[in-house]
Write a structure and sequence with these properties.
Layout lengths: L4 E7 L3 E8 L6 E4 L3 H14 L2 E8 L4 H20 L8 E8 L2 E8 L5 E5 L6 E2 L2 E2 H14 L3 E8 L3 H20 L16
Parallel strand pairs: 3-4, 7-10
Antiparallel strand pairs: 1-2, 2-4, 5-6, 6-10, 8-9
Helix pairs in contact: 1-4, 2-3
Length: 195
């Protein structure tokens, strides 16, 4: 069985980020960003994608936006790296996940034609210790750096915390399904012969 693991360190004047991923893991997570709600979302992402995920993020300039953005960029790039050639995978994944009164849906194609569409439907200016603007940017930066096609949409809901949590969980489950190895696939799952 191929080893689908990757680690990336991103060090800038603004942040120091370290991310390690094992795609075929058990959902074990170690997350430390200093932002409680961000930690909560990343732990949920690791748990429900069933990847082992380690994220250590520190700010050098004490600007929260930079820390959130760089964490998402590094997570996306590390998952992309762990996917390798993307050979022998299922390729497509879909998940509809409820969180109490909220419902989110994610559709993913792990082809290397980056496109993302995001609709979180956040109404409040802040959720826990994150601004809504930074929350949206976290999702945007993560999706941009996965190097795939993703549609992630909160269909409805009243509680913004629930909407965000349903969104991250639906993305995690869709990614788990799309990245799963398919024993029937001999190479990359594409009529082009490449992803």
């Amino acid at each position: 069985m191929i080893s689908r693991k990757a680690s990336i360190k991103r060090n800038t004047k603004e942040t120091r980020i370290s991310v390690s991923v094992t795609l075929d893991g058990h959902g074990k997570t170690h997350v430390r960003t200093g932002i409680n709600f961000l930690d909560h979302l990343i732990v949920s992402f690791g748990k429900h994608s069933m990847m082992d995920l380690k994220v250590d993020a520190k700010s050098n300039d004490n600007i929260t936006h930079h820390l959130i953005e760089d964490t998402a960029i590094t997570m996306g790039q590390t998952i992309d790296k762990a996917l390798g050639s993307r050979g022998k995978i299922t390729r497509f994944g879909y998940a509809s996940v409820p969180m109490d009164e909220s419902l989110a849906e994610a559709s993913i194609d792990l082809v290397r034609r980056p496109f993302w569409k995001l609709g979180l439907d956040i109404k409040q200016s802040k959720i826990e210790d994150m601004t809504s603007e930074d929350l949206e940017h976290f999702f945007q930066s993560l999706l941009q750096n996965l190097s795939c096609c993703v549609h992630l949409d909160v269909k409805y809901g009243d509680n913004d915390h629930h909407k965000a949590e349903a969104a991250i969980k639906s993305l995690a489950v869709a990614l788990r399904n799309a990245s799963a190895l398919d024993k029937r696939q001999k190479n990359v799952p594409s009529t082009k012969g490449s992803m």
